[in-house]
Design a protein that fits this description.
Number of helices: 2
Order of helices and strands: EHEEEEHEEE
Strand content: 25-35%
Strand order of the largest sheet: 2-1-5-6
Mean pLDDT: 95
Shape: globular
Number of strands: 8
């Protein structure tokens, strides 16, 4: 189950919902999983600086179990592309990183998950 957390410029709720829906579809395709297994969130950042100047940048964190190179790259590339296009910023202004999710280190559904 990939989880994608985006931090970016303030946007209206309808735009955020559309962005997250497209993000879920793209990441699901990129990592080869069902779209219903992808969780996405968006946090608005009030101000950001790049080199001391205000800028429009986005941070994306992808958490998932699958650590195969193709799944990691597929998820990161899909997320960065959708976030850049959805926010109208260059892909160069999106910083995306992968965090592996390991068995026994996740609490969800009322219990510690193991696989």
């Amino acid at each position: 189950m990939p989880i994608v957390h985006v931090r970016g410029p303030e946007i209206v709720p309808d735009h955020a919902e559309a962005l997250l829906n497209e993000l879920a579809r793209a990441v699901a395709s990129g990592v080869s999983c069902d779209v219903h297994d992808v969780w996405c969130t968006y946090d608005a950042v009030i101000a950001q600086t790049v080199g001391g100047h205000l800028g429009r940048i986005a941070y994306v964190e992808l958490l998932q179990r699958d650590t195969a190179v193709a799944a990691v790259r597929g998820g990161l590339e899909a997320a960065a592309r959708v976030v850049a296009e959805g926010l109208g910023i260059p892909r160069e202004d999106v910083w995306a990183r992968f965090t592996p999710v390991r068995s026994g280190e996740v609490y969800a559904g009322g219990r510690i998950l193991s696989w």
